[in-house]
Each structure stands twice: as C-alpha cells, then as structure tokens.
Design brief:
This protein has 312 residues and is α/β, with parallel strands linked by helices. It has 9 helices and 14 strands. The strands form 3 sheets. Strands 1, 2, 3, 6, 12, 13 and 14 form a 7-stranded mixed β-sheet that branches. The chain is elongated and about 85 Å long.
Length: 312
C-alpha cells in the first residue's frame, strides 16, 4: 500500500506533521482523506527521511569519529605496477586523505647510472601527470599530498650539474613542475601539448606529518628488516618532533617496529621490480609491493585498525 502514496498525499502529511500531528495521527488522516493505509513507520520515512541526502561513507565514518588515510609510495613512473589505480579505486570512497610518499617518478633519464634506452624525462613527466590526473579524478573530495623521494632529487642534481639561464624559470622539485602544469613542445612534430594544473599539495621536503602520523622518505636505508623504520623513529625522537607513528618509504620492504612507545612501519612500494635488483648484486633483497591504510579514531592514529596491505 505504501508504494501508492502520491506527492500530494506526502505534502498533506507534512503539513499535518508540521502542525503537531504524530506519525500515527498522519496515518489515520491519510486513511480518512484518501482511503489508503500507510503504516506509521512508513509515514515517518516519507515525512522525515526520504528527502534527506544520503551520507557518504566518509561522512558516516566521521560521525563515528573515524578517518582513513591512504598512503602509497615508490611508484617510480614509468615503472609503476598496474595495481596503483586498483588500490585507489578500492579505497576511494572511505578515505579523506591520500599521501604519496615520494619516488613518484623515477627520473631514469637523469640518473647517474647511464641507463640504455631510457624514457626521455619529458615523457616521464607526461606519464606521471596522467597517472596523478587519474588519481585526482577518482578522488574528487579527497585531500591529496605528495612528498619528495630520493628519485625526485635526481632532477635537482641534474639541474645543478647543468646550470643555464633557463634554470631560473623552473622549480628544482620535479613533482612541483608536474603538478603546476606544463607545456610539451614537440618541435619535430610541430605539436604543443598542454597539461593542466593538478590539485595536490606538494611538500618540498622528504617528510610530512598528519595528525601525529609522520610519512617520510629517507635517503639511507638498511636491508635488515625494520632497521630503517627504527632509524627513522629514532631520528624524529632525537629532534623532539611530536608524533605517534612513523610510516617509512624508500626501502621497498614491509616491516615494523615499536620503540619509545611509538610505532614505525616500512610500507612497501608500488612499482615493478627494478632491473638493478636482479643484476647479480647479492646485497639486494626481494621487494615487497604494498601500501598502508591509516585509521584515525577521534583524531589519533589507531595501531589496531591501521594496517599494511601486501600486493602479491
């Protein structure tokens, strides 16, 4: 019977309700006037609930004092693994912040390793812009933050080694160059391609802090499990930085430690296995692909609900 209710009947019920009638009273009046029986609970739905906008998952979590932050690192465009966008898609509706923890681009063309057939830096920038744009489009209501990694430093070192008057036109942070938008002049083809400004906060540093959670990308690392996590934790404690948790990128490994009453985690990477890892150097150990989903309860990192995810 409730499915037959019309807009006119709903408006009639709303008028009664505004004038002090109960849901039961409205149900009786609808029956008397229109000859239909609407259960009082159904009356309640039509008068007070139906027109209310549905809460998003993030809003529902916020009402419970919960916030989720997605942390991805070491994507190494153009060597990113295919799961990057799959991970964002999986968590996009529940997160309010996404933090990219450095080494977003590989900067292979300006590497000191002199690689063969390296992708030109401008093409790497285009690929990174396209990936960041896809992430942005998937997360329209999410705050997006990027910090620098050691591979981004390759760009700054390249500029310093090749000084010229045009260097003053550019930032020494390649992520800032990508995010602020740029034009690609392909003079051989006579084509100019424009890449728009992206909505990311670029932190021009190797670490940032969000509600007591540090996300960092140190230059040095250890192949010993959790040793880099411990070193990072000790670094920030010694410098009196206030924090609860430290998420560590760069190692391409997943492990954790607990010291000084604080938690530190190596979060893994989101790139394909790098060629140098299988070049015969026995010091390299197998990388672990994965990411971290941080859960905050009442504004504080919750160690029991937060976790590393491993991608096989």
């Amino acid at each position: 019977m409730a499915l037959k209710i019309t807009d006119e009947q709903i408006e009639f019920g709303k008028t009664l309700f505004k004038n002090g009638a109960t849901y039961y009273d409205v149900s009786i009046e609808l029956y008397d006037k229109y000859g239909i029986y609407i259960h009082p609970e159904s009356v309640r739905y039509y008068l007070t609930r139906r027109d209310k906008p549905k809460l998003t998952v993030v809003e529902k979590l916020a009402n419970e004092g919960v916030e989720k932050v997605l942390v991805l690192s070491d994507i190494h465009v153009p060597f990113e693994c295919k799961e990057v966008l799959e991970v964002v898609e999986k968590h996009k509706d529940e997160i309010s912040v996404i933090i990219l923890g450095g080494d977003i681009v590989d900067c292979v063309a300006v590497s000191s390793f002199d690689p063969l057939d390296a992708l030109p830096l401008i093409d790497e920038m285009v690929a990174a812009h396209q990936l960041l744009k896809q992430i942005q489009d998937m997360t329209p209501n999410v705050k997006r933050i990027i910090i620098k990694g050691n591979h981004e430093e390759r760009y700054a070192k390249y500029l310093s080694k090749h000084p010229n008057e045009l260097n003053k036109l550019h930032s020494d942070n390649i992520i800032q160059e990508i995010v602020k938008g740029f034009e690609y002049y392909d003079r051989l083809k006579g084509v100019v391609s424009k890449y728009d400004t992206l909505d990311y906060l670029v932190v021009d540093d190797w670490w940032t802090s969000y509600k007591g959670m540090i996300v960092c990308h140190p230059i040095t690392y250890s192949k010993v499990a959790a040793r880099t996590a411990q070193s990072a934790l000790e670094y920030f404690v010694e410098r009196n930085v206030k924090f609860d948790t430290c998420l560590v990128a760069h190692t391409h490994k997943q492990s954790s430690c607990f010291k000084f009453g604080k938690y530190s985690v190596e979060i893994g990477c989101m790139c394909k296995p790098m060629a140098y890892a299988s070049s015969g150097r026995l010091s390299y150990t197998q990388q672990q692909n994965g990411y971290h989903l941080a859960v905050f309860v009442d504004g504080k990192y919750d160690i029991n609900q937060s976790r590393n995810y491993t991608i096989q």
